[in-house]
């Protein structure tokens, strides 16, 4: 079901799908580095593939806008975690995935959205996903900005330690950056057919191949 929903993202907005694919890889790597089992890390990667599912209900005039969003547009954008979580609930997927999607924009200091959760109130899965998500946004080309280098993104993340991000998780991610050559994935339109992901054993090959 999650892979079918990821395919719907791919069909609606290939840029959002490509972003989600990279975030899935980063989140899986970080989860494994933090001691999660392969299965747990795989589940988080699946959640990451659909973390922006709610954006499929936002118009291109907002998604692709190069200028700053208006207050009304920003409020619409900030509803995408709720929309995505509601879609997942409608398909009766496990609460683990719902929580990761719903809370991936919460901030450690309680100033995130949609629920303004603070610190350890935020599910651990969402805290990992937040770091992976922001790192990819920082290092990717967007209509409104140029990509940052790995070093620039590293410094930007560190500046948000204890405010935007769980400091322990962030420190682990930064260390992973420092010890992993060519950590940052190339931004491109992914040509992998998601139906192949349903074949036995293909999921691990998909994640491993994304690191090249």
UniProtKB/TrEMBL annotation:
Pfam families: HD_5
Domain HD-GYP: 1-189
Entry-linked CDD domains: HDc
Annotated protein name in UniProt: HD-GYP domain-containing protein
Taxonomic placement: Bacteria, Bacillati, Chloroflexota, Ktedonobacteria, Ktedonobacterales
């Amino acid at each position: 079901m999650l892979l079918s929903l990821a395919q719907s993202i791919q069909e609606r907005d290939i840029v959002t799908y490509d972003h989600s694919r990279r975030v899935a890889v980063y989140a899986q790597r970080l989860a494994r580095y933090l001691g999660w089992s392969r299965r747990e890390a795989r589940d988080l990667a699946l959640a990451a593939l659909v973390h922006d599912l709610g954006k499929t209900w936002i118009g291109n005039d907002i998604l692709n806008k190069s200028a700053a969003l208006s207050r009304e547009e920003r409020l619409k954008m900030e509803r995408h975690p709720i929309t995505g979580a509601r879609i997942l609930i409608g398909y009766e997927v496990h609460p683990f995935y719902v929580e990761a999607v719903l809370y991936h924009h919460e901030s450690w200091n309680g100033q995130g959205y949609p629920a303004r959760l603070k610190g350890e109130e935020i599910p651990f899965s969402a805290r990992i996903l937040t770091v992976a998500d922001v790192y990819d946004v920082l290092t990717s080309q967007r209509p409104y900005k140029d990509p940052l280098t790995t070093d620039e993104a590293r410094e930007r993340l560190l500046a948000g330690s204890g405010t935007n991000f769980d400091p322990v998780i962030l420190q682990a991610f930064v260390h992973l950056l420092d010890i992993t050559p060519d950590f940052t994935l190339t931004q491109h339109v992914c040509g992998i057919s998601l139906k192949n992901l349903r074949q036995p054993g293909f999921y691990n090959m998909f994640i491993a191949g994304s690191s090249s």
